[in-house]
Write a structure and sequence with these properties.
This protein has 203 residues and is mostly helical. It is built from nine helices and no strands. It is 80% helix and 0% strand.
């Protein structure tokens, strides 16, 4: 149960911004097929999982409590997210509140002849920091726990696509995520990092 909960929380913490991206993709309309969006998401996020597994496998020979030091990575990412959010607010004030989401939507509507590859690359680019969270988790888990975590992640990707499709047509929900997501993401990452450090026995 703890493995399932950790998997769900780590997925949410690292992919809440991706949910907003998925919502934008689905809101584009006929420019993108839903099938392409879903496949692109799976290709991108599973690629991040595979890279994390390869890195984590190389760390298996280290004592578990020292692997807990990697818990500092999500903590760093959380603190950096808070700092980036602060800088973004300052830039918006200087630019008199120009919105970036509309620009993203316009660029996402032009995926070219290979939308799946484009979506996968965008997903990987926007979720590159996922590796910093997944590696310390996989490094401390047994083979059966890793398999269970991957199953949880695969299921969560499907749920993410489903929610993105539904939320794309609810302006109120989109506004809430856009307004408070910058608070939820860093706090969850910092909490996850503390959990990794404590559970490893480092402290």
């Amino acid at each position: 149960m703890s493995t399932i909960i950790t998997g769900i929380l780590s997925f949410i913490a690292t992919n809440l911004d991706d949910l907003f991206l998925v919502m934008i993709l689905f809101s584009v309309g006929k420019s993108l097929k839903k099938r392409d969006i879903v496949i692109g998401q799976y290709v991108g996020l599973i690629s991040l999982l595979l890279v994390s597994l390869l890195i984590a496998n190389g760390l298996k020979s280290f004592p578990e409590k020292y692997i807990g030091i990697l818990g500092l990575v999500p903590i760093f990412l959380g603190v950096r997210s808070i700092w980036d959010s602060y800088k973004e607010d300052e830039e918006k004030k200087e630019n008199k509140g120009n919105s970036k989401s509309n620009k993203s939507k316009n660029s996402l509507s032009k995926m070219g002849k290979f939308p799946i590859i484009s979506i996968a690359l965008i997903t990987i680019a926007s979720g590159a920091d996922n590796i910093g969270v997944y590696v310390p988790i996989f490094s401390q888990e047994s083979s059966s726990q890793i398999i269970l975590s991957i199953i949880v992640f695969v299921i969560m990707i499907g749920i993410w696509c489903f929610l993105g499709d539904k939320f794309a047509n609810i302006p109120a929900v989109k506004n809430v995520l856009n307004k408070y997501g910058h608070i939820f993401i860093p706090l969850t990452l910092i909490g996850l990092g503390i959990y990794i450090i404590v559970s490893s026995g480092l402290l």
